[in-house]
């Protein structure tokens, strides 16, 4: 019994030794901050530094009052925005399928239904996003040539709602094509069966750069676009529909 008690006491003394904390460990524990903030608390106190713009829609169709001079029509589009805008998701460039209206009337709509779905973020509305479309045509021999250009701003608010079946909910933009500066250019264009093209179509988006250009309307391009914006009010932008 005496030996058991001694061994028992010795075990208790060993436990006390293991529970002792060194002075260095005490200093390390004291250095830990007591008022550390969790990531959720930091996120709640942070303020918004940008707003987002979510665009969905489609390039619906093209209409030519006198009929297109090409057998097949297709479009190449590009999204253009200012330096403060960043494309978060979605393609910046795209091309539609070839379409025609040869099976119907000459001025029937040429349908594309090309979907568009992009997300932007920005700190300023300056340089609001636009979509620039180059319309091309192809004849039976496979030669492609320009038909015209069209551009439209992305909507700020939700978009148009179709109230009546006779009321169009589409945004229409004119299809403009450059004119030859002189008669020699007209003759050359007629012989080559090619329309003059702009070296940089983006100048159409700047009124100062496009000043003096000779353009003619050739048809209309129809868009159906919808927008959802988040975070603009936190930056002081209060837009109302």
TrEMBL record:
Compositional bias ranges of the Basic residues kind: 23-32
Q: Does the keyword Magnesium apply?
A: no
Q: Where in the cell is it found?
A: Cytoplasm, Cytoskeleton, Cilium basal body
**Mind telling me which InterPro entries this protein's record contains?**
C2_B9-type_dom
Question: Which stretches does the entry tag as region Disordered?
Answer: 1-42
Residue stretches of biased makeup (Polar residues): 33-42
Q: Does the keyword DNA-binding apply?
A: no
The superkingdom listed in its UniProt entry is Eukaryota
Recite the UniProt keywords alphabetically.
Cell projection, Cilium biogenesis/degradation, Cytoplasm, Cytoskeleton
The secretion signal range is none
Q: Composition bias, kind Acidic residues: at what positions?
A: 1-16
Family, similarity comment: Belongs to the B9D family.
Entries under PANTHER family matching the protein: B9 DOMAIN-CONTAINING, B9 DOMAIN-CONTAINING PROTEIN 1
**Protein name per UniProt:** B9 domain-containing protein 1
Per the UniProt record, the source organism is Drosophila arizonae
Could you read off the lineage of the organism from its UniProt record?
Answer: Eukaryota, Metazoa, Ecdysozoa, Arthropoda, Hexapoda
């Amino acid at each position: 019994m005496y030996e058991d008690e001694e061994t028992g006491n010795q075990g208790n003394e060993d436990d006390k030794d293991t529970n002792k904390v060194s002075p260095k460990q005490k200093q390390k524990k004291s250095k830990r901050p007591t008022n550390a903030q969790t990531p959720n608390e930091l996120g709640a106190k942070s303020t918004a530094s940008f707003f987002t713009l979510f665009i969905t829609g489609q390039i619906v169709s093209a209409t030519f009052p006198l009929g297109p001079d090409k057998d097949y029509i297709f479009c190449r589009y590009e999204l253009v925005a200012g330096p403060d805008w960043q494309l978060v998701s979605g393609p910046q460039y795209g091309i539609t399928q070839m379409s025609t209206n040869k099976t119907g009337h000459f001025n029937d709509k040429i349908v594309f239904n090309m979907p568009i779905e992009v997300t932007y973020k920005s700190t300023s509305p300056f340089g609001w996003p636009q979509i620039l479309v180059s319309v091309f045509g192809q004849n039976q021999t496979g030669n492609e040539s320009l038909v015209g250009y069209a551009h439209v701003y992305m909507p700020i608010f939700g978009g148009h709602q179709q109230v009546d079946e006779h009321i169009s909910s589409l945004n229409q933009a004119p299809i403009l094509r450059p004119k030859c500066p002189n008669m020699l250019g007209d003759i050359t264009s007629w012989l080559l069966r090619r329309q003059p093209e702009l070296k940089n179509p983006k100048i159409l988006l700047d009124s100062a750069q496009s000043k003096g250009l000779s353009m003619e309307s050739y048809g209309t391009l129809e868009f159906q676009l919808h927008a959802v914006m988040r975070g603009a009010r936190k930056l002081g932008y209060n837009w109302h529909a």
